[in-house]
Amino acid sequence: MRQESVQYFTETEKEFANLLIKIGTKKNIAKVLVFLANTPEATPREIERGIDIRQPEVSIAIKYMAEQGWIKSIEIPS
């Protein structure tokens, strides 16, 4: 059986995401951005589980941030 750990938002990270939302950042983008700021790399599944949003929402946020040049996204063949 494969074992994996899941990172979850701390109260400080939630507060930071809420501050980004208050200044106009879209909710899911703010959450993904804060999650990735504290994680050197993550799969969409890890992000989805860590911040409790659905996979399509993660994909939209990742695509937007990659287009802005905020993150670098790579595809790893399964």
Quaternary structure type: single chain
Overall pLDDT, averaged? 87
Number of helices: 4
> Which H/E pattern describes the elements?
HHHH
First-last Cα distance: 18 Å
Residue share in β-strands: under 5%
Shape: globular
Instruction: Provide the helix percentage.
Output: 55-70%
Q: What structural category characterises the helix and strand content? A: mainly alpha
Report the radius of gyration as a whole number of Å: 13 Å
Low-pLDDT sequence parts: none
List keywords for this structure.
78 residues, mainly alpha, globular, 4 helices, 0% strand
Overview of the structural elements:
With 78 residues, the chain is mostly helical. Helices cover 58% and strands 0% of the residues. The chain has 4 helices and no strands. It has helices at 11-22, 27-37, 44-51, 55-68. The longest helix has 14 residues, at 55-68. The radius of gyration is 13 Å and the shape is globular. The mean pLDDT is 87.
Give a brief outline of the structure.
This protein is mostly helical and 78 residues long.
Topology:
Blueprint: H1 11-22, H2 27-37, H3 44-51, H4 55-68
Helix pairs in contact: 1-2, 2-4, 3-4
